[in-house]
From TrEMBL:
Protein name per its UniProtKB record: HTH psq-type domain-containing protein
GO molecular function: DNA binding
Pfam short name (any one): HTH_psq
InterPro entries in alphabetical order: Homeodomain-like_sf, HTH_Psq
Domain HTH psq-type, chain residue ranges per copy: 18-47
Amino acid sequence: MSQMIWKKRKPQYSASVMEEAVDMVKSKAMYLNRAAREFDIPKTTLFDKAITLK
């Protein structure tokens, strides 16, 4: 049986977009789920940046 090789994908968002989304979540101007959808960022990534890495 052959092994599958997974390639890491580059994020499709820029650092400035991530920073803006994190600021919106931290200031409570937008919920995390909505910010993830609006800025097209994975919810888990946004959660890690906004909540756990205060």
